[in-house]
Amino acid sequence: MSFPDGFLWGAATAAHQVEGNNVNSDFWVLENTAGTIFAEPSGDACDHYRLYRQDVALLAELGLTSYRFSVEWARVEPEPGRYSRAALAHYRDVLDACHEHGLTPMVTLHHFTSPRWLMRLGGWSAPGTPERFAAYCRTVMAELGPLIPYVCTINEANIGPVVRQIAGDLLELAPVGLGDAPAGGLGAWLSAAAHALDTTPDRVNPFLFAYDQAANEVIMQAHTAARAEIREVSPDTRVGLTLALQDYHPEPGGQERARQMWCETFTDFLPALDGDDFLGVQSYSRMRVGADGLLPAPDGAEVTQMGYEFFPGSLENVIRGAAAAGLPMIVTENGIATTDDTRRTEYVRQALEGVRRCLADGIDVGGYYYWSALDNFEWMLGYAPTFGIIAVDRATQTRTVKDSARYLGALARKNGETL
């Protein structure tokens, strides 16, 4: 079976990871505060804020048909209720560039980073955050909606529970978020960051570390409020969110724990998806689960730069599990961090074989976006992990196309027939 007509063949980026100098964001402060857990600051990143036209043209030249990128809230609304016309004009031009080059844009309105002022108001644990986020989404979509056929309100709305499962107590984080870390070490860093943000540590609740159930409720309310605003001002735009879905593999004694972990990261978020047009599925590897939680990769297994097991079959497995949501799905992220580009190509090939099997079984999957278009800033790990199908020399900002990019582009040109 071939891929359906109109299948979206794309690559993805996130604003903070590629644009550079996102100085009004909470993460910029966290990266640049003494004692940070970030390996290095984002700095100029890939200078995509300046070089976006070059990058969009390159993706189209490769043969891709879509580009997923994010609009940065901290740029659009640098102070509460004050919107930047210049930032909106910039993102309009990014969208224009996509359309000029025949790329269908998919826009994410929140990809982990938030305005630094939001931390002064309590961040992603504050009850007023859904309304503030929805107002920002309304402004963007009222201005740009006709150019945006697909919009994801929030990237990985379930990332808090996922990080909690992976990190547990290793980061010494209390359930309500970063702001309650103990004094010394992490606490000293957060105190300094809170001072830089002109607030107190208990109010520093960035999205990526919003762990507790109250924060989950805030995030889900933010999505549903944003969806309502988008529906009103841009009714032709298809709306969804993305979830980081883990392929849990129970080992002996781990069946119940694996079931609980799936509920925490998928089932618990289903109420917020009611009324969405699609679900963005994001998966990278499997997780082995024992009675007490996660287990390491098997002895001798191939692992990536992220420490994940090389396991492209995870994508098919989570698509089949997520079909329970009853929504059309789009693979909004899937990829591998490696210095061996031949393994990246093989990973993509096997992952897409899994997508094709899902399609053959009647599961509605409308597209595949590789993560990431560019080697970029990978949050706390800095620039060491290389996910991109395009390499970036950050000293010169020179782009170098990898063979994996040519492989994905060739698939796109023939709609997967050469897989």
From TrEMBL:
InterPro entries: GH, Glyco_hydro_1. The keyword Hydrolase applies. Pfam families: Glyco_hydro_1 (PF00232). One of its GO terms (molecular function) is hydrolase activity, acting on glycosyl bonds. Keywords: Glycosidase, Hydrolase. The keyword tRNA processing does not apply. It is an enzyme of class 3 (hydrolase). Its EC number is 3.2.1.-. Belongs to the glycosyl hydrolase 1 family. This is Glycoside hydrolase family 1 protein.
